[in-house]
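Quick look at the format.
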Amino acid sequence: MKKYIAIIMTIAILCLTAVGGALPAAADTPPVITVTSTEPLIIGGVVTTQFPASVAPNTVVSIVNAIYYVSQGERYSFTGWSNGSNSSSITLTTAGTYSSVWAHEILVVVNSVVASLQQSEWLPYGQPYKLSAPPQDTQGGNVEYDFQKWDGGQTPFTADNTIIPFQPMTVTALYTQKFLLTIVTPDGITALGGGWYNAGTNVVLQTPKDVYSDAAQDARQDFSGWESIGATPVVLSSPSAAVTTIAVNGPYVLQADYNQQYLVTATSPFGVLNHDWVNEGATEQFSAPATQAVVTDLEQYAFQKWTGMAGLTSPQVGGVVSGPIALVAVYTHQYKVTLVDPYGGSGGGWITAGSMDTVTVPTTNQKNLILKSRFTGFAGYSGNANTIQVMVNAPVTVTALYTTGIDFSVLGLIVLVIIVIAALWIFGRRLTMNRTPKPKKNIDE
């Protein structure tokens, strides 16, 4: 019995000895650590490209580059490690397999005239990506873009689109460009043609040729031409036409220019002298004939004044136009009164029809020293007064009648002067004779 106990104890001691030797050996065995990657790594300071790779505990593993480009539009980007770390370097201490995680990315470029849509972005390979375009975009208030379509994607004809990037791609949001055409007119005038138009659209512009201020239609605004006043200039082929066509290639601002005009008229009993629309501030001249013959040298009309404006008495007037003008030339109907008198007189000439003309002639006229003409009357008129009143209802000829004879008063005066001269001569002669001494007689006689 003791023998068996001794054997058992010996076996136990041997087992314990064996176990004691085995435990330290198990504790000294290193953990198994494996690293895999699709891209080069730095393992323990050495660049490694062959994977999987076994590493010793406490080895530092790092990425070489955060991004590897397959092409200009395709790349792989480091995103982290399989153990959840996103650091570029990790120290491996625990047994296991560790992998670097890379994202396969595709470059997608979005083009558009709408600035907010312009972008380039690296997107995950093969994953659907949402694109959204605004239905409308207005720039500066006078340029507008209306969504038309995408040139690619799964739903290109709607503003919301989806793309799946399998290769580098450029997708464009196509918009229709529109411009605001603005027309500026004076107050009270409306022109047609303004609004939003697709770029390149031909538009008809139309503005009234003349706009009258009131029912009298003697004041108006007259179209003078189109003027480009916006920041984007435009040249019109027919700028002076009230109706013209323009190609809208920019946000144009056009002004319809007008001149303030007034109707200026001048008439006479013989017709229209002036009938013009004149710009405000311009100078206008009016001219009426001083006389208008009905029968030459017998009947006429003579200018008297203008009505329609005070103080105008000359047949030729002018001035600056500041409002409507309507002048009427007033004429006086006249007949010719002809005075036939060899010795002059007063009266006669052009006399207003229906009025009285006073005719006066001299009563006598000394033709020469002894002959004298004496007024005897007017032909066709009774009496011998040298002044008469003539009713002028037609051309009139007034003839003064004279008789010529010896002027005895002058003749008597002449005879008297002769007698006086003769008497004085005789008297003087006698005085001379009386004063002359007589000759003395000779003594010898």
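Next, a different chain entirely:
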Amino acid sequence: MWTIPDWKEPRDWFHGTTKVGCLAGEFYECVDILHVGNKGAVSGFAAAAFPNKSVDGLLDAWLKRGSLGVSPFKPDKRCYIKIPDPVEGGVLAELQPTFANLIPFSRVGRDRTVYGQWPSTATAPSTVSPEMESASAPVSSPPQDTLPVRVTWAAPFERLKPLMSTMDDLYAHACMRSIAELSGTDEAGARAQSAIEAREWLSQGQSTVARAWLEPIISEEGEMGALFAIASRFGIEANSLADALSNASLRKELGHPMPVQRAWGVPGLMWGLLLDRLNGSESFKSCKVCGQLISGKADKRFCSEEDNAECYRARRREDKRRSRKGK
């Protein structure tokens, strides 16, 4: 579903097998609708952007330092996006960069790293929307004495990112890290705070049984897995998925509405996964060496190679050094 400035018609059309909708809006916006199954499988037009078409492991990757950051922005670099067109299938449109958010510097570290902070002081009221609260009148060139940067996404999120990210993404990421750290000592408090912070990103929605239940099963388990699931749930047996879907009774069942939790964007998905983890009484722990958040067994104390390869290898080297010294 797109919104495009000054769009007239049509409201929707098919591009191949994909239905495209388009409405007039203030900005260029695109919403890809995907469904996540009970086992984490992702189905939908952009499902291939997810590692193994699944959300497994995404929350742990998101909570790591460096999954979101900032990088220099070149205002003279032209930026294009492909917007839908009912005849051509898609046309290129140039986006003009504007500068609207001003985040004050809070300090400069010994390594000359510059730190920004919003709200501007620790005593200021908590922010609700950093993007809106830090906005000034947009201009076409960086304001004087400022450092133009943009939010960047690291693997595996670089394929899931929108064209431009915002301070709201950084704020949501920081909130989730703080809540995950809190869960190690106050699980109930972390769960309550997470439910409050996630309200702007999650809502109740409605889909169909076909899209919310069957399609993720097909994505993860293939045709045979879907046939077993259909036989188990509806008592309808078939030799192929095509045969099953030719059954009028099954098509009626698959067309029934099904309640879903709607998550907006990557931060919304991460809030949903975080709530699921905390509601399942799975708290987070920190590595005793580097302090990074880790997941796994309750007695786990240090980073595994998957958590932080650098920390893991450094600890292994130290273990070997101690072992040789003991001999």
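The mean pLDDT is 82.

See the schema section for token definitions.
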